[in-house]
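User: Sequence in, structure out. Go.
Assistant: Echoing your sequence, followed by the structure tokens.
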Amino acid sequence: MPYLSSLFAVALISVGFLGLAVIWLELRHRLRPASPLQLSAADWSVTMGSNETLVEGLVRIHNPHARMEVMVPELVIKPTLLGRANLAGLQLFTEVLAEHPDEQARPDGYWAAYIVKGKKTTQARLRLHIKASAGANLAALLDTLWLEILWINYGPFGRLQRRDGVLIPLRKPEPLDPATAPWRLGEACSVLPVPTHLLGVLDDPAAVLRRYAGGVLRPGDILTIGETPLAVMQGRYNHPAMVNPSGLARLLCRAFHPTSSLATACGLQTLIDDVGPAQVLVAWLAGLGMKVLGSKGWFYRLAGDQARLIDDITGTTPPYDQTIVLGPSQPEQTCDELASALGVPVAVVDVNDLGRVKVLASSDGCDEALLMRALRPNPAGNANERTPLVVVRPA
């Protein structure tokens, strides 16, 4: 009995220390230095010419904090052109024009350090001129512009280097012709992968689905969208340079399989930033204990859906292969909204080439058993097919 009492006391002390450690980690995570500034892109336009293309748009910087003032001493852009041919002969010129509400922009284009006061917003107009040599056809060469915005936040939290990426489509494919759409026969159904342009934060999901799939839909169809394309439209991606791995992330990531998106410090830290260190640590310890007892998968059950959905770098289509992409936010609500807008059931799915099909969320009227049969061959593909939408039609 004294031995059992001692063992019980040790267990209680261990649980107590673990509880204190979890509380400390959670408080440290919530109180870490952070800038309140929020950057968004809007009003982008593309004027395509035979030898010159002008891309122009705004980035807005908003400070939601009531009292904190944050300085932006630097803001530069790093454009990358994506195409389907050699782009070596193209020239690219950029302009960053400050449009502050209370200061005039410098005529020389210099970005002067600016203070974004509490509850205030400022903006910058970005222009990119793309030029080709005489005789070149820009429309045939260009496909997408990936624009990275590198900017500094300076304030009570210190000096933070931030890096945001915006994808701007330079050309878009024509929607499918209902008369010639390439339907595929499936198991008691027909399946139609729907091509789109490369999607990003400038795209509205309902508008994308309506433009590319609206013409081929009819009553009884189910429209699916991949979880990653939906996530990038929601802006749920981050460059690893924006992730500051904690000691916890560096330690725990070593226990995951090398092919897992949580096997890197930045990948696991992305999950920690989303759900908190306490949930990740408890899930990791419980998962390890259950694995010793012969039951696997408990970490992913306890850490939440995002633990399975996060894609580390190289896990998605360029240019998002340079970023860490989370799963979509509020997929159930999104399905209901999209179904209401299009008039057919909508599902958000995660499918791979190994025949694994997971329906993350669906609206009323979705036959998930039908989706499992139809999507098991992965008609959308996992490479650069650019068919994030799939229409499933019951036979």
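User: And one key feature?
Assistant: The first strand starts at residue 38 and ends at 48.
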